[in-house]
Amino acid sequence: MGYLQSIMGKNEQTLFVTRRHWTVIAGSLIGSVILSLIIIALAVALVTPSSGLSLLLLFLLVLTLGRLSVAYLKWWNEQYIVTNRRIIQIEGVFNKHVIDSSLEKVNDVVLNQSFMGRLLDYGDIEILTASEIGVNKLEKLSRPIRFKTTMLNAKESLGRDEDLHLAAQPATSEKSITALITELAGLRDKGLITEEEFQSKKKELMSRL
Question: Is 106 left (phi over 0), alpha (psi -120 to 50) or beta?
């Protein structure tokens, strides 16, 4: 079971998962690759296998590749998720940091895209909520339009489900009251309660409709 699945609630479904755009780490990746190639070239051209300088260059190469791996893992493990109940932000490779906002608390969503953002499909999203934080800004999010539309559609569906639930409650109460009146009529027919008692209870139950 993945970490995301472990924090999901009962009947909660993942609708969309995205990350920050690859341009966020492009500079670090390109810089690390170029530096690694320079170190390798120096090692081949200037150093003999037994020299101390070769060990130093090897250490620098390992350090560079290590930093590259850490940057990539941090980027990959930073996820932005829309479920049918909330918006979840997960950060961290080993130590996880999770921020979530209920769809019910979302008041508005603002999308900002530059010209390059439209070309490469990234943008900034501001989620305005009723919580103390107020605004949650997600910068350089990949596929921001789909993220926004999925979130708004999920919020609309959540509200519609609540309306259906509330609409179903009176019908359920009516059925329950009808069943109780039927049971009282049976008791009356068996002589266990009087007609006056039956009418009194029936009137009380009918007043709840």
Answer: beta
What's the Rg (C-alpha) of the chain? 31
Q: Which of 122, 115, 119 is nearest to 23 (CA)?
A: 122
Residue type, 169: Q
User: How many Cα atoms within 13 Å fall on the side-chain side of residue 209?
Assistant: 13
Q: What is the 3-state secondary structure (H, E, C) of the chain?
A: CCHHHHCCCCCCCEEEEECECCHHHHHHHHHHHHHHHHHHHHHHHHCCCCCHHHHHHHHHHHHHHHHHHHHHHHHHCCEEEEECCEEEEEECCCCCEEEEEEHHHEEEEEEECCHHHHHHCEEEEEEEECCCCCEEEEEEEECHHHHHHHHHHHHHHHHHHHHHHHHHHHHHHHHHHHHHHHHHHHHHHCCCCCHHHHHHHHHHHHCCC
pLDDT at residue number 171: 44
pLDDT confidence tier of residue 201, bands split at 50, 70 and 90: confident
Cβ neighbourhood burial of 80 (10 Å; 0-12, 13-18, 19+): buried
Between CA 184 and CA 115 the distance in angstroms is 73
What sign does the dihedral 143-155-137-107 (CA atoms) show? positive
Mean residue pLDDT of the chain comes to 83
**Partners of 16 in the β-ladder:** 82
Tell which residue, 70, 58, 59, 68, has the closest CA to residue 34: 68
